[in-house]
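Record 1 of the preview.
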Amino acid sequence: MNAPPSLLGPSATPGEPEQTLVRCLLGPRPEHRARQELSDALRRLGQTDEVFEAELAVNELVTNAREHAQAPYELRISWTETEVKIAIVDGGNDHDTVLKLLSQASNSQPTHEESGRGLQMVAGLFGGRCGAEPTTTSTGITPAKQVWIALSRLNRRPAGGE
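->
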């Protein structure tokens, strides 16, 4: 069994597939664990520009997952030379609904409903760089969905790099 990829070195080199770090979000404070794991990973990848925004988005996505979908919950951080994709995975199958809400918010169509305001915030922070899609959990559970945001990695160096 392969160990999770190290975040200490540079990400994938040109032509290599993306690398992914998966963390299960167990316990009483999954939002806290997700923010900490994300912060550590982004720092190691040299991503410092949007850490605060990414933490806000991840906090909201984990909260939504806990309120609207079944466990298990996972944080997935995938990266290539040009992009970091941060996703929250849950046991839901409502990716179409989530994608519609993100799209409406990205197109400046605010929701007046009590539900969906967190996704509106995520789309406001990452409009055009967020989405939702069906997936499978790392343990093979399906149906599952992932709601994601993306950060650009252009001109980034890992922390401690030259």
